[in-house]
Amino acid sequence: MSGGPRALVIGAGIGGLTAAVALHQRGWQVSVHERAASLEPVGAAISIAPNGQRALDVIGLGDAVRDQIAWTAEGGIRRPDGRWLARTDAAAAAERFGGGLALVHRAHLVDLLRARLPREAVHTGSAGRLLDPGEPAGPGRPGRPAVVATADGEREAELVVAADGVASPARRLLFPDHPGPRYAGFTTWRLMADDPDGRLGDLPAHETWGSGALWGTHRLRDGRIYAYAAAPAPAGARAPDDERRELLRRFGTWHAPIPALIEDCPPRTVLRHDVYTFRRPLPAHHRGRTVLLGDAAHAMPPSLGQGGNQAVEDAVVLAHHADPDTADHCPAPAAHTRDRLPRTTDVLRRSRRAGALTTVANPLAVLARDTLTAAVSRLGPHLALRALDGVADWSPPGTAYPSPTAAGRSENTDGRRPGRE
């Protein structure tokens, strides 16, 4: 690679690759360093909400993701006995937020992103370790580049993007006094199931809320089924035999097709991960020439499905500010913190509240939650959808999108929440 200031990305997850593509398209000389030996993401599917789709529009991938939307006429929230607590309206959601929810296999999205980078830009089996966050040039001072240790030696860069995950070593270097993410109190399982003969039929998308546990089922555009579950458990606990049997113990008596999905899933394909989240936001998302991105900056519970969406938002907002002609003074990291810290803090807090609601275990609290959910559903779809106002209706800075047509909405083309200055 030649030409342009140097940007080094630590971590080749969805957020890191999106940042790499966006910076490459702006004219930066990008290199990505990934610890794993290959770009084979651990995980099943990822949900890309309308805000994430609009972020991906910036790098030309929005429509490719929208092609994965599997429209369904019905869906909603159920109880473990199968009774519906609330029905969702896909058309109302699309009207309010400018699109539907796309479920994409992580490997497919990684392939789409990787294809937009030069072949020599991505280095696998090469963990990047931040040594010096660097310092932008300023009045009377020349500044210095950031320094990262890689498998090929130390590398200097005018901009470093640390997308190195929830346990981010870069974050610990930048903010050694911050406690970082803490265990959220529950663990999650994810699985993908085939349904080649279509025996499960239309399979309405749903989440099922029980006492201290939840299950979700969604069909992908290609016919496969993505399912996930969450339940309280001690940090680090694992099944005594295998995680498929653990799911059967916890969810085997819940409504169809949950037991059948678990039974049909090979044990090795069930993924389990404890959930860690920030209880106290970072004071900033940058130091010097280094920017924290995604889970490294704002790990959040999956309760709103926004973790990946916030990472791709981070990536395109950073690239928006990262003018290659200003690389010496490097104002992009500070601008990124200014734009992203308030928003991700808001989404993080909402996600934590949603997680507490869906995993509540006290019988009286469960009854109150279910009663309120059913009552809100009866008042119409837009009332329930208000929970995602200011989240799913986000647009990237510097882009113009048509206003959502739902009543009372205002055009939002600057990346801020509607109605905020």
Automatic annotation (TrEMBL):
Report the InterPro entries cross-referenced here.
Answer: FAD-bd, FAD-dep_Monooxygenase_BioMet, FAD/NAD-bd_sf
Provide ranges: composition bias, Basic and acidic residues. 411-421
Signal peptide position in this chain? Answer: none
**What is an example of a GO molecular function annotated in this UniProt entry?**
FAD binding
Q: Identify the residues that the record assigns to the FAD-binding domain, covering every copy.
A: 7-319
Keyword list (alphabetical) reads: Monooxygenase, Oxidoreductase
* PANTHER family for this protein: MONOOXYGENASE (PTHR13789), PUTATIVE (AFU_ORTHOLOGUE AFUA_6G14510)-RELATED (PTHR13789:SF309)
Name recorded for this polypeptide:
FAD-dependent monooxygenase
Q: What organism, scientifically named, is this protein from?
A: Streptomyces alkaliterrae
Its lineage opens with:
Bacteria, Bacillati, Actinomycetota, Actinomycetes, Kitasatosporales
